[in-house]
Amino acid sequence: MNNTPRCTGMERARSRRDFIQRFGMGLGGVALTDLMRSESVAGYGALAGHHFASKAKRVIFLFQSGAPSQMDLFDYKPLLNERHGTQLPDSVRRGQRLTGMSGNQSSLPLVGSPFKFNRHGQSGAWISDLLPHTAKVADELCFIKSMHTEAINHGPGVTYVQTGSQFPGRPSMGAWLSYGLGAENANLPSFVVMVTKNKGGQPLVARLWGSGFLPSKYQGVRFRSGKDPVLYLNNPDGLDSASRRRMLDSLRRLHQIQLDTSPDPAIEARIAQYELAFRMQTSIPEVTDLSGEPDHVYEAYGKDARNPGSFAANCLLARRLAERGVRFIQLYHPGWDQHGGLVGGITRQCRETDQPSAALVSDLKQRGLLEDTLVIWGGEFGRTNYCQGKLTRNSFGRDHHPRCFTLWMAGGGVKPGTTFGQTDDYCYNIAHDPVHLHDFQATVLHLLGIDHERLTYKYQGRYFRLTDVHGHVVNPILA
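and the corresponding C-alpha cells:
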C-alpha cells in the first residue's frame, strides 16, 4: 500500500504558482539587486553611465510660474510702441485661436512695453530695465527667443514643461534624470524642489515634481522654510537616533524575511527610502543652515536672502545643494500671471527674482561650478502683444500666448552670450529657428550626456520617454 500523501488539484495549482513565483521573482530579485547596487553607486542609475560625454552634471531650473511677458523683459519690439493702441492685424493673427479670456473681445489693441530696453555686454543682448542685475551677466546667458508650445492654459502648460505631456501622470524631468543617472550624494535626494513661500498665483501641485509611473524613490523631495525643511524627517519626541537605527535594522530584517519568499520591488524601494531618510537627518540640517554664509554672499543675493523661503534664499540654498551633488534642483516662483495691472505686477516679480537669479549665475561661476551646472530661467508660455480687457493710460494686461516666448540658460555646456531664434516684429509668431518644448527637453538631456530617445521606461506595454515621440537637440546653442 502506497502511503505517500496525495496532492489535490488545488494543492498542485498552488505548488505550480509558488514555483513560478519563486523562479520568476527570484530572477527578478537578482536583477533588481544588481540594479539597486548600480544605482547606489554615485553617478549611476538605470543607464549605468552616459550615452556620450556630458557637459553638465546637474540642473538648477528657476521656473517662473504664470508666464513672464517676453516683450517686457527680453524680446524688444519697438514696432509695438509705434503702433500702441491700434488693432492686431488679421495678417499677423492668421485666424489662430485665442483663450476664452480674450477671445470674445471686440477689440484687440496692441500694447507696447512701457519699460526701456538697452543692449548689454559684448553680446549686445536686449534686456529691459526691469532686470538690471540680469543685464550684468548677459554675456553668461544663452537666450532662446523662439520657444513655443501647444498648451494655452496654466495647468497643462506647466505640466508640459515639467513632464513632457499636457496630461497628468508622467514622470517629471527631475525624476527622469534621477532614474537615468542616479545620485552623486548618497546622503541627499537627487531631486529637490523649493517653492517661494507666501506667493499667490496659479496653484503648484506635487505631481509636477512626481515620479509618475517610475518608482516613487525618484520623485522630488520638497524643502520648506522653517525648522523642518523636510516633513516627517525628524524623530518624534522620545526617540533618539540610536533607537531609530535599531528600529530600521529590525524592520530591514522583517522585510528580508518577506523578500526571501516573495521578492517585491516596492519593498526594496521602501527600505532604500527609510535608509536615505535616516542619513538625511544629518545631511539636511547641515545643507539648509545658511547661517555660515558670509555677509558678502547675502549682499550678492539681495536682502531677501536672509528670509527663509524667499526666492533669494532658495537660490542661495540651490547653490549649496549643487555644491553637494544634488542632480536636479527645481525652484518655483509663482505670480507672473498678469492679466491686468501688468506694470505693477511684473515690477514686483522682477524685484524679487532679478538679483538672486543673476547672483546664482555669478556665484556658481566664481566657485567653478557653472561649467558643469545648467541654470534655466523661464515659464510655461508667453504673453500676448495685445491688451486683455480695456487699455488705459496707466493700466493694461496681457493674455496667455503659446506661440512664442523666451527663456534663458547658462553654464552646463551652452554657448554664453548667445541669442537663438527670432520672433516677428509684432512678437506674435516665430520668424525663424523655432524651438518646441520637446526640443528644449531633448537639449537639456543631451547636455547631461543622455540621448533623449534612449532614456525610456516601459509602462502599460509602451516605452515612454520625457520627449514623447518628438524632440530634436538644438545644436547651435551648444558650446
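(Above: one complete record from the training split.) The CA atoms of residues 85 and 393 lie 10 Å apart.
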